[in-house]
Specification:
The chain is of the alpha/beta class and 243 residues long. The chain has six helices and 13 strands. Strand 5 and strand 6 form a beta hairpin. It binds S-adenosylmethionine.
Length: 243
Amino acid sequence: MRAMNIILIQPYEWQGDCSAGTVSLHDHRHRHIRQVIQPASGDRLRVGLLNGPLGDARVLHCDARETRLEVNLHSTPPRPLPVTLLLALPRPKVLRRTLQSITALGVKEIYLLNSFRVEKSYWQTPFLQPEAVRETLLRGLEQARDTRLPQVHLRPRFKPFVEDELPALLQGKVGWTAHPVADAQPCPSAVPEPGVLAVGPEGGFIPYEVEQLAAAGLPAITLGPRILRVETALPALLARLYH
Ligand code: SAM
């Protein structure tokens, strides 16, 4: 069952001025409202305009064909996490779960990065198609009652990314590479500046990659000796860095 804590309205569906209008839904959102919420006319639902404000909606009607809502947009979505994430491309199933949960946590800039221990075949997965990525991100937003869609960038070549692009991304930010080795610095907590965080693949970054990232301004940090799965390490790192 899809967790839909907010009904997201696409800008092209919006018939109204900047804060009030009506919308008709016919797709999975309509089915969710009709089958799961089962509202009576006049009931109120939480809504948000994609990349816009949050609000609430009154159900005008909900029948077999459509749900029609009278929408009022009035508040700002939750604050994004001030972090750019460089994530070594995980296996497809983990990719979907991870994209969804980091979206729910408020990450807005995600670079999916190659690394020596990323299997080549992962780059061919249909889950990396723009529509599939977008669908996954929308689920994360619906889960967290957020409206701002993250940007996902694919970087299938590690070295050119680190040498040519990373320095500009790091401007005005602090950088870290999550790497669970004994001589890494303990993960800092409650950091006041925006940051860039690199997280490794299932087998970890190889020493050459850790050196390259450190040379670019992302020294190794650790949460301690426990080796965590990416899905577990990410929320722990983000909560510690930016709680
Ligand atoms: N054997 C690999 C290693 O020792 O690096 C394990 C990789 S772990 C499954 C996948 C990624 O999660 C790591 O590359 C790192 O970015 C992050 N991670 C896992 N446990 C961590 C910890 N205790 N501290 C910091 N990062 C961690």
